[in-house]
Amino acid sequence: MLLNAKYLEEEDADNMIDVKPSFRKFVPVKLSLKYFLLGIILLVIVVGLSLKILYFTHYTSAVPNKLASSTNMALNSKGSESLDQLSPAITSAGPIKVVYGLPENQPVVYITIDDGWYPSQEVLKLMQQYHLPITTYLIEQAAQKHPDYWHEFVNAGGNIEDHNFNHPFLTHLSLADQKNQIYQPIDYFRQYGPPPDELRPPYGDYNSEVGQVAQASGIKYIVMWDAEMKDSTLSTRSGQGLKSGDIILLHWEPGLDQELIKLLNIIQKQNLGIADLTQALNGEPLIICWLKAPIPVSKPTPTKTTISRTTGTSGVKSTSRSK
Ligand SMILES: [Zn+2]
């Protein structure tokens, strides 16, 4: 037994010797597993970075692609002007004065509404009831859908200015196309009063060439914005509250009347008045609209009472019944 035991011990010892090489074989396996895992992590990082680069490449190239398809077709007001586009703001446009806000020498703000695909009877009623001075930067192609409405808008104290024929990125057009985009609405909007002399470039996109073309077309001011009312929230360029001289951006979109009421109540709460932007730009004495009390918030506007972009040009009452 002892012999056997000794033999076994020796056999075990021999086995131990035999085990060592296989253990040595096992060590490289462990190491390669470590490297394998490291490789997987590196692969994940590389793939992640590649995806990020691809995303940004796509994102930055998406704007010109969108532009290419937008030059010959009008865009919905979704994805239009916004406060975000002002950063970083370009402040020169050749010979033209670019206005983001006005001096704070009077306790007033200015309301501007862009595009014009969804004119609203409720907004007209608010303008008439409170004598609101509103400047609208209209796309000619949108205005053509509801010509009667825009006469009512002007009769209610509204002012129509230039937002181009069909809302292109102006800086991507030839000078001739820029001229057509800027000048054609000036000519078209003569039916509503004095020809526009303010340009709001679609998407806030302008440069010195646009400024030169605009000036040659009769434009005096490129009017931007420094506050925006959107999704029931007022945002300002400064990140602070509303201040005197602010030019506030809104869009003709379904539910605009509710947005406008909320904005007016913010203005009223801050003891600010509302003045006509064109009067202010021209240095004329301001007729200021003061709201004495908050406006009651009514029920949200049903979409069917807002004139649809897709309906014809047969006027407000007939189109308002369409879906
Ligand atoms: Zn626009």
Helix content: 40-55%
Major sheet, described briefly?
Answer: 7 strands, mixed
Mean pLDDT metric: 78
Bound molecules: zinc ion
Shape: globular
Question: How many extended strands?
Answer: 10
Count of domains = 2
Q: SSE order, as H and E?
A: HEEHEHHEHEHEEEEHEHH
Beta-strand percentage? 5-15%
What is the distance, rounded to the nearest whole angstrom, between the alpha carbons of the first and last residues? 102 Å
Q: Could you name the CATH class of the largest domain?
A: Alpha Beta
CATH superfamily of the largest domain: Glycoside hydrolase/deacetylase
Under the CATH scheme, the architecture of the largest domain is Alpha-Beta Barrel
Radius of gyration: 32 Å
> Helices and strands: which structural class?
alpha/beta
Number of DSSP helical runs: 9
Which spans have pLDDT < 50 for at least 5 consecutive residues? 1-23, 52-78, 303-323
CATH topology label of the largest domain: TIM Barrel
